């Protein structure tokens, strides 16, 4: 049976402010990328999200970010490779502590927002993130945009990697994501998002906003936990992927 991972960006609440229905999503996902306090999350949110991920048997990843709480990690910053290495290592270590305390195991690392997009096109930055991941644990899997510099950097350094595609984001013809600032960059319609996800998972194809066909291989599909219809979309997507003969499982799961 063909397999696909279904991952979500979770643990993005902060203090008294809440974002998304993480507990409901965890029952539907196979992997969770948990915020580590730099773009969202705090120690109690991290502890709670990790504990629930362990209870649901969901693979746990560190969702590392630029230090940008106010901008939700979506504003680009000029950082050196040394800074990228250090902030990645710092955040992995923080989430690892909570994972160990909950009796779980950290399985992967995925950059967030601006850092994700920067590393997708900047090989030097991607190499720094990959080195930090490997130096913490060479068995950690590095999640990155399919066809990006980050996936290449992970492979080059000997890390297991997962090529990622997005359920609710539009693509350009070169396989990059259409920037959020552009109209139509985020797919709001559930049926359109479902159709895109199935096309990627089943056929290895995605269509751009102007209906051009782009080849796209993905090991994992990302659902954004902050979407207004995230749980509904996740439930329908899981059902349709399984109906199409795909097993939902984390990369490397036995």
Molecular structure report:
The longest helix is centred in the middle third of the chain and has 21 residues, at 81-101. The protein has one domain (2-248): Alpha-Beta Barrel (TIM Barrel). Helix 3 (81-101) runs parallel beside helix 5 and helix 4 crosses helix 5 (123-136). The strands form two sheets. Strands 1-2-3-4-5-6-9 form a seven-stranded parallel β-barrel, surrounded by seven helices. It has a two-stranded antiparallel ribbon with strand order 7-8. With 254 residues, the chain is of the alpha/beta class. The protein has eight helices and ten strands. Helices cover 39% and strands 20% of the residues. The protein is globular. Helix 1 links the parallel strand 1 (2-10) and strand 2 (31-35).
**Count of DSSP-assigned helices:** 8
Measured between the Cα atoms of the first and last residue, the distance is: 13 Å
Largest sheet: 7 strands, parallel, barrel
Number of structurally distinct domains: 1
**CATH homologous superfamily annotation:** Glycoside hydrolase/deacetylase
What portion of the residues fall into strands of 2 or more residues?
15-25%
Extended strand count: 10
Relative helix content: 25-40%
Would you state the CATH class?
A: Alpha Beta
Summarize model confidence as the mean pLDDT: 94
Report the CATH topology name: TIM Barrel
Order of the strands making up the biggest sheet: 1-2-3-4-5-6-9
> How would you describe the shape?
globular
What is the annotated CATH architecture?
Alpha-Beta Barrel
Spans of 5+ residues with little confidence (pLDDT < 50)? Answer: none
């Amino acid at each position: 049976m063909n397999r696909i991972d279904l991952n979500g960006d979770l643990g993005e609440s902060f203090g008294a402010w809440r974002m998304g229905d993480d507990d409901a999503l965890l029952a539907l996902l196979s992997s969770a990328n948990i915020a580590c306090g730099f773009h969202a999350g705090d120690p109690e949110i991290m502890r709670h999200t990790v504990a629930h991920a362990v209870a649901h048997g969901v693979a746990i990843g560190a969702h590392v970010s630029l230090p940008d709480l106010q901008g939700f990690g979506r504003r680009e910053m000029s950082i050196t490779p040394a800074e990228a290495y250090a902030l990645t290592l710092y955040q992995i270590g923080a989430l690892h502590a909570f994972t160990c305390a909950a009796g779980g195991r950290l399985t992967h690392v995925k950059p967030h927002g601006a850092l994700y997009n920067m590393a997708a096109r900047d090989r030097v930055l991607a190499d720094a993130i990959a080195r930090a991941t490997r130096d913490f644990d060479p068995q950690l899997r590095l999640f990155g945009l399919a066809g990006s510099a980050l996936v290449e950097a992970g492979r080059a350094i000997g890390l297991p990697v997962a090529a990622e595609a997005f359920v609710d984001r539009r693509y350009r013809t070169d396989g990059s994501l259409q920037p959020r600032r552009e109209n139509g960059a985020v797919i709001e319609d559930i049926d359109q998002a479902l159709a895109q996800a199935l096309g990627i998972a089943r056929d290895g194809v995605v269509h751009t906003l102007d209906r051009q066909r782009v080849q796209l291989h993905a090991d994992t599909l990302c659902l954004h936990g902050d979407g207004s219809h995230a749980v509904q979309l996740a439930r329908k997507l899981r059902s349709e992927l399984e109906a199409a003969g795909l097993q939902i499982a984390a990369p490397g799961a036995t």
